[in-house]
Amino acid sequence: MDVKTYMQQVGRQAREASRATARASTAAKNTALLAMAQAIRERRDELLAANAADVADARNNGLDAAMIDRLTLTEKSVEAMAQGLEQVAALPDPIGEITDMKRRPSGIQVGKMRVPLGVVGIIYEARPNVTADAAALCLKSGNAAILRGGKESLRANQAIAACVRAGLKAAGLPETAVQVIETTDRAAVGHLVAMPEYVDVIVPRGGKGLIERISKEARVPVIKHLDGNCHVYVDDAADAGKALRILENSKTQRLGTCNTAESLLIARPVAVSLAPTLCAMLGRHGVAIRGCEETRKLVPQAIAATEEDWYAEYLAAIISVKIVADVGEAIEHINTYSSQHTDTIVTENYTNAMRFLREVDSGSVMVNASTRFADGFEYGLGAEIGISTDKFHARGPVGLEGLTSQKWIVLGDGEVRS
Amino acid sequence: MDVKTYMQQVGRQAREASRATARASTAAKNTALLAMAQAIRERRDELLAANAADVADARNNGLDAAMIDRLTLTEKSVEAMAQGLEQVAALPDPIGEITDMKRRPSGIQVGKMRVPLGVVGIIYEARPNVTADAAALCLKSGNAAILRGGKESLRANQAIAACVRAGLKAAGLPETAVQVIETTDRAAVGHLVAMPEYVDVIVPRGGKGLIERISKEARVPVIKHLDGNCHVYVDDAADAGKALRILENSKTQRLGTCNTAESLLIARPVAVSLAPTLCAMLGRHGVAIRGCEETRKLVPQAIAATEEDWYAEYLAAIISVKIVADVGEAIEHINTYSSQHTDTIVTENYTNAMRFLREVDSGSVMVNASTRFADGFEYGLGAEIGISTDKFHARGPVGLEGLTSQKWIVLGDGEVRS
């Protein structure tokens, strides 16, 4: 079978299975998730052996250490995978929720019911734990899933897929409700993202290159997460202690995450007093400063920032620093250079806080809080599909709800339109 | 200037203006809308003259009567346009609404704020009243708009655009917040739908051909409205009086609207008693019956339905009729053949009603109500951008909210992540 025919068969099966997952009871979905967790525990040695073969191949093919690290399963990470499935089982079922019912002058009652999107395609790199995680999130939200993991993790993905199928079977759900692509042919991705008749949304989880390629080729909606160029703006009415604490946490708690701050803006009236202190704190954490001209006068260790620095997501011990006139210039700068991920203002001034909240055009906008809070678990979503840098459908951290939609429902008693 | 350069300039200006419309106060937006209405009233004779020239050309070019009818403005329709602007001014402002604020264990408060999508492109046929309507809906929802109307209405559209600009100016908003494309070059549409850097969403308002073409070419999200193949399912537990009333209204109140019923399903246990009565009523309204074999035994005037009939949106005095075993087969049939627009069940049985509501995968699903209620005004939205047959972002009747998104906001007091 050629890859196109194969993918169309997978798509057709997913569309068919999505009808069953959409109407599946909460109990059936949870039974499947718990049975998947059990199967993963029971077949742990099998999973580890499959993964060991993947890892051996990856080493022979010269994959770098970071990729091998993400690829490798351990007894602990297999147990974490099983626990992850149990956690998703414990989340409230989003499907069927009825909201906003209102009686209209005609007599009908109108409101909304939450429903699955249908078929979700998830494309990810060689991280086998994503296979179990993605399967769980799609099933709990009533969707069928087509999963395409990095080719280096094929054996482990197939072993996990077998556990997922065992769980679905145990709950009386179609085993095609979660399909893991069996070919490593790259053309499979091209077909997956271009079958609107079978796939309702694509969620790419991986690097910027992967996501840009998929966005370009996709013929269906994509929930995409590009870069995180996050800002901390220290207002002229900032509390100095909060500024120091929030900047330290936003920039230095973890350097490589998308919600890490990459740029610091300081209001001119407090720059003389605060820029040296803030930059000295960053220096103690080994963070290099790339500053505007004014910054460099106050912070001698800063090197000159270029235009590219204002756009940069360093994911490293570097930060760009700019002195701005006021909250207005800060907002202007952020809306020009930020990646619309997460930006925070440190201020005690009510009007500046409200203006920042309203005018900064990003997925998460914060007052007096660390950018590191931009995360599905911190926001209370219970699970995270990803963090969207789009505006359409879902912005910022996306939970199970991001894989659902709302249809209108009308409850009548024989009403007709006049 | 070539058309691509022109469209990019329009796009750049719209993106720039969208920052001003996003932060515009409710008062400024309403001032602009009321000033537009005033300008339209004051320049009525000018608008009518521009339109008369359009209509004369259209007649010379042999446009059909229905198109000329939609193209033609009258004193009454110009007044209706002005009143439409006033009605949008009277609607609540969706922007800035804060919802779902919850305190998290970390101390932060997390919730959502409603924000505009940014730049909305609206593509429509030769109906000049849509120019004013679309401008109003985009502005009220805080978006900048790029409007492209049918080439036959160019003169009237430009005259209306001048009134729109006058209104924007009166409110201190950039005149580029609403731009009406000045070229009739068809290539302009191709560019408009393929500038993700400048346009956030496209709303095509027109026939199926236009919408299919745009969906195929678009590089940005499209809120699309394809066909309305709506079903009335008369359950075995239906009240006969409600069935008759709802079917009559759904099919015969207006034949040519997208929420008109095109297919009737009857549960087998009540087919002998109800099919003849229901079809006789349709016959009195001049509606021709295309029935399945069983229907034809009960309704001699029915001609045989083909597979295509189950898919058909007739927009005419024709209906397809099928006898089904029960609510399960009805749902199966609807999910196979319907266009996911609007479907209704007539039943007194609670369990069948709930099952139909939950399992029918359409934008509007109804119990004991006419499909004709699927409409933004009937649902209480105040205005309607269109009726979406998509699942992503917005389903069914789309009001101002469909042109908005929600960002996350976090209110802290110096919290950091541990």
Automatic annotation (TrEMBL), chains A, B:
Every copy of the Aldehyde dehydrogenase domain together lies at: 9-271, 311-374
Q: Name one GO cellular component term.
A: cytoplasm
Q: What is its main location?
A: cytoplasm
The pathway to which it is assigned is: Amino-acid biosynthesis; L-proline biosynthesis; L-glutamate 5-semialdehyde from L-glutamate: step 2/2
Q: Which domain of life is it from?
A: Bacteria
| Reactions catalysed, as given in the entry | L-glutamate 5-semialdehyde + phosphate + NADP(+) = L-glutamyl 5-phosphate + NADPH + H(+)
GO annotations under biological process?
Answer: L-proline biosynthetic process
Instruction: Report the protein name in the record.
Output: Gamma-glutamyl phosphate reductase
